[in-house]
Specification:
The protein is an all-alpha fold and 528 residues long. The chain is built from 22 helices and no strands. Helix 6 packs across helix 22, helix 9 crosses helix 13 and helix 9 packs across helix 16.
Amino acid sequence: MLTSARQLLDLAAQAADYKLGERNNTALLFFFIIVAITLVITYWAAKKTKTSSEFYAAGRSVSAAQNGLALAGDYMSAASFLGISGMVAMKGYDGMVYATGWLVGWPALMFLVAEPLRNLGKFTFADVVAFRLRQTPVRIASAIGGILTVLFYTIAQMVGSGNLIKLMFGIPYLWAEIIVGVVMLAYVLFGGMLATTWVQIIKACLLLFGVSLLTVLVLVKVGAPTDLYAKVAHEYGQKMLEPGALAKNPLEAVSLGLALMLGLLGLPHILMRFYTVPDAKAARKSVLYATGLIGYFYIIIPIVGFGAAVLIPGGQAAIKAIDAGGNMAAPVLALTLGGTPFLGFIAAVAFATILAVVAGLTLAGASAYSHDIYVNVIKKGKATEEEQMHAAKRATIVFGIFAVGLGILFKGQNVAFMVGLAFSIAASANFPALFMSIVWKRFSTQGAVAAMLTGAFLSVGMILLSPTVWVDVFHNASAIIPLKNPCVISMTASFIVGIVVSLLSPDPLAQAKFEDEKLRTYLGVGAE
């Protein structure tokens, strides 16, 4: 490994004349190899994807280890790789809040949600919420919350991908967004969940290898981690290693922490993965595998961020000049330490990361419409396989077009920060209703709908009026709501409204079915 590191360092000198944004054949070679491999997988998966179960859940044929890697791949998104490394490079210690927050939600996911989800549901988390409640209102409300969450999560991935393609190809941001949208749609439309799963597995392995190599190169250059931190303090001051650079308001810090920890339990594209394994035991084991892989990734990614701050010539100013959000810190560090071959590899891995995650998000967004609204609300559960597949593919195309448009609108935002907002919506709109439907007997249909709509609209409304959108995107002088992350208010409101409305409108039929739900939750009796 160390020999490889030194060889790559030598290559950096050969690439001294290369300028970012110029087209480079070596870098593009890695890029096209990875895209070609993933398209071959999509072709193979397309031949195995004929039914709605195969399209949404890979025919429940994915093993625990495979699903663990795919879960890790879904979670180690552009926000984790590009966003956290950039956040640490620009903001220092506070960037690590994202890495820590995103990790600690996994034990809760394993013990609270994994088993009930697999035993009660079929394709989406709404299957669980609506298990003993009235189908139509609950599915409409859950589809609204799910689609809003997925849209905000997708914005972050699309912004990261646009910057990356622009950096590698030297083409305009607009065309970069369109290229990403077209390739991603090819994955989902033809390969469904099976293609998305295998693309995630390959991408997770490549990303872990790439970040590990980048970490080793940083440590070879500066010495032990303590030497790296000393260098950071010397160049930027001790404040770079202390909290307060990102979240200065304590309420803001608490809100961000809640969103990062509990948002995971409401992410539709993560929850959907538990339907791809054969049973609840495999679902729990897959979370265990994913937690180990993600934990390792989040431990080493701050080293990449701090390494970028001190090793890239020009430091933070140079990183910010390339992308205002700092998202290109890791690729530029790869160029600095390993030359254009390593830049090509890291950029290709990052691009595969974005494509795979956007594919998963698109699948989750499309299923919220096609399965929850079209099949269960419009067709009353009586749609044919052909009708379900057509609805899913139409929804996929519409969602893909929205993703490209939003990626263009939110150009220049830090992707980790944007995903933090998506987590806030998930924690407010989806998590309270999902949790109460599993553990609280008196939870009613009216309470579920009120909780989901309150969480969804309150969190999105507060984000639109916050400095992030009201000032940065709409260019107003000051924000109507100063809080950047609304989770502490919107999630609390969702819980309170859900409890109060359930108590005011008891649902005897739902309460009578609670014991049956517990039996199926814990024993898996009747689970598909």
